[in-house]
Amino acid sequence: MELLQLQYFERIAKYQSMSKAAEELHVSQPSLSSCIIRLEKELGVKLFDRNGRKIVLNSYGKYFLNMTRQILNLVNECKVPTNEKALMERINIGFMNYNEKMFSLIGSFSAENPEVGFNVHGSTMSQPFAYSAFDFIIGLAYEGIPLFRHELTIGSRHDYVIVPKNHPLAEKESIAFEELKDEKFCFLKDEDGGYESEYKACVMSGFIPKCAFVTNDAFYKLHYISQGNVFGFIPNTWKEVYEKCDKIVLIPEAGNLKETATKLYWSDATLDSEANRKFLSYVKEKMGGSSDIRE
């Protein structure tokens, strides 16, 4: 597999058009088509569904596109600046689940250690992860991270219902899913059509939620819900962010599932870097020397 194949594939996938990709890359369409055929043969799977001259990414193609973009981003990061003094040591962190506490620690560590930079990748919809690309990964305890056998508990997750401030349900101490069957919602939805887990919880409670606004971006969800027109769900890790919105209130889900621990994971290779060791020590110190650490 060649880097050029990945670059060509990424452009074709972006436009889902050989002609547009060829025009941007200044390459002939037959050359592009031949490149993708070789790539698919090497992978042993098709990346596109073809209908005449029209091409559409299939499910594996979407997965491979996510991996490809992570690889290309890493390649770009490897390009050494002309001025070597400008080259900062960088820490790569992958967020499988958003955690406000870790974002705050990254910010405070950066302020105290300006010689260290961060590359942060977020995946709010559990998209595929190239685990080996990261020094640290933030995820839930039940997810498990291949090769990342060290972990530190950095918090717990439980969920809140987002309620418009002027709605009658805003006065309740907790809300059951059944009470929400007549309301309108904002949900996250990934490119494969999968909704966030609370959508399924609504269905399991006996109703199909009315989706007034659907997006694949957590911050679009935040901006829409903050207007106070619809309901939604968030884990407690987003609580501080949403509490700043004056048109909504956050109410715990009734009968919430048992709290799930949020973990910081790292591998043996992570500790080969002085910057990584320094950051990990910093996190452990700020977490108050948590005893819930698996080495």
From TrEMBL:
Keywords associated with the record: DNA-binding, Transcription, Transcription regulation
Record-linked SUPFAM superfamilies: Periplasmic binding protein-like II, Winged helix' DNA-binding domain
Domain (HTH lysR-type) ranges: 1-58
InterPro entries noted in UniProt: LysR_HTH_N, LysR_subst-bd, WH-like_DNA-bd_sf, WH_DNA-bd_sf
GO MF annotation list: DNA binding; DNA-binding transcription factor activity
Cellular component, GO annotation: protein-DNA complex
Superkingdom as given in the UniProt entry: Bacteria
PANTHER family attached to this UniProt entry: HTH-TYPE TRANSCRIPTIONAL REGULATOR CYNR, TRANSCRIPTIONAL DUAL REGULATOR HCAR-RELATED
The family this protein is said to belong to: Belongs to the LysR transcriptional regulatory family.
Protein known as: DNA-binding transcriptional LysR family regulator
Organism encoding this protein: Hungatella effluvii
Lineage: Bacteria, Bacillati, Bacillota, Clostridia, Lachnospirales
